[in-house]
Amino acid sequence: MRIHPTILEALATIRALNFRRLTNAFKLVASYLLSYYSSNTKLKGLPMAFAIEPTNVCNLKCPECPTGSNLLKRPRGMMDMKHFSQILQQIGPKLLYLNLYVQGEPLMHPNFGLMVRQASKFRLYTSTSTNGHYMNSSIADELVQGKLTRLIFSVDGTSQESYGLYRVGGNFNRVKQSIIDVVRAKQRARSLYPIIVMQFIVFHHNEHEIPKIKKLARSLKVDKLEIKTAQLNNFGKMRPPLNARFSRYADSLGQILKTQTHNRCWRQWHSGTVTWDGRFAPCCYDKDAKFSFGNFLTQPLTELWHGKSSLNFKHQIFTDRSQHDICNNCPEGANLF
Where do the 4Fe4S-binding SPASM domain residues begin and end (predicted)? Predict the structure, then answer.
């Protein structure tokens, strides 16, 4: 019997909850609302969601990605396992959700499976996103046994021709086999996790393939298919889809967001991002960590989270978020939460 992915996600979230984490979440919500409705920026609690970057190295050349386009300004590298453990010890106790991905291909890290196992010891909802080229049956078994909660495969086409237009250098058949490897690993372990998600980013060149990708998702027996709007950058050459339903932009050039944004951002109160070399960035939109609040390798979480740089950045969000260029392509401010 197959269980709906929403139920699986809810069960995994409930498993991660405890009194300490619920209390921390309440503090975050309360301080966010107080900051929004008053003139003072207040921040209580610690992040309940976090993204850790195993590596910012990738094997593909996706044109809308700063890594794939070779435009990422910060150094390339892989997180040291000692540093990963130190960061996890600080954020883990009050954390609910951990995403093991920022830039790059996470499975290129030689100890990625160990990262998953260490994170699972904190009873977290864990997730990652992969292009599938470094997956095999052995790694699939390791991720299943390590209790990864959610595994996203990027599949932006239904043939090598369409897939390769964005996932430059990728092999469509290799990705399909990787999904099969994880499905079989789950069957061998009789496990419901990880929740296998096939992600399809919609561009002009592949929007006609949406019916086909739905059929492919069913044939590969993934748990969930996510149709995602593309984030277009100034350096990219991709075109947004003609169907407005699948575009986050109001114009054909991909420069004006459809949703009206406001001077707010719940993400800044509940989550954080750390790069492979320890830089604490505001969020994943800060690709080069230029707004970094400091470094985990030399500063504790409480100092970084409640420090002057963090509070000043959050205050600016509530006064004029357009001053932060990383916010201009983000629809986060459309909703209060």
Answer: 265-331
